[in-house]
Amino acid sequence: MGKGKMTSMRKIVVVVGTIAVAAIALGQSAESIQKALRAESNALAAWGSDKAFVDAVKAQNAKKVSLDDIKRMDEKWIAGKGDELTKQVTSNPCSEHLRALVAQHRGYGEAFVMDDQGALVCANARTSDYWQGDESKWQRAFADGKGAVFIDRPRYDDSAKAPLAQISVPVMDGGKAVGAITVGVNVTQIGVH
Predict the structure, then answer these.
(1) Can you give the CATH number for the domain in which 28 is found?
(2) What is the pLDDT of residues 142-180, one digit of tens each?
(3) What is the pLDDT of residue 159?
(4) Which range marks the domain in which residue 149 is found?
(5) How far apart are CA 102 and CA 122, in angstroms?
(6) What is the DSSP secondary-structure string of 37-65?
(7) Torsions phi, psi of 113, nearest 5?
(8) Is 144 left (phi over 0), alpha (psi -120 to 50) or beta?
(9) Which of 110, 148, 156, 184 lies 20 to 30 angstroms, CA to CA, from 118?
(10) Nearest to 16 by CA among 4, 8, 138, 158
């Protein structure tokens, strides 16, 4: 078996293993958890065409901020020196709308909207970093402007004391991805709205 196939096989084993651990903890099959995550992703996909998110993402994209500037903002954010930027991201109409949607879904946690470079447009709370463009959640959901749903494997989160999965969906405008949305979902509360 070639190196590429072995790497793919390892990834499948890790994903299935993580889902299996969550399934054992919940008394559910891994298949039922995957099915529930797909159902949640279908519901979240509608958020990607929500006018409030589309308009906010398009407005940020129109600013044409360079990737170098975004990375500098990210460094400040991570270092805890981006208080003004944090306030802008977490206290705007987009973030208020996002918080309202998240509050309607028990088990939804951290949620954020990203632009066409993976920079935050809004978030329901402060995230660990500002730029998501180097992470699978943005790369796979944005998909070079084509847009796709990406469900990351569940991982145990120490602060939530529960297995969480991040579901990412594209923000679409006229059949083209202009950004993405990521929502953390508590796997133990999937489907409880």
Answers:
(1) 3.30.450.20
(2) 999 999 999 998 888 775 677 889 999 999 999 999 999
(3) 57
(4) 3-189
(5) 13
(6) HHHHHHHHHGGGG-HHHHHHHHHHHHT--
(7) -115, 135
(8) left
(9) 156
(10) 8
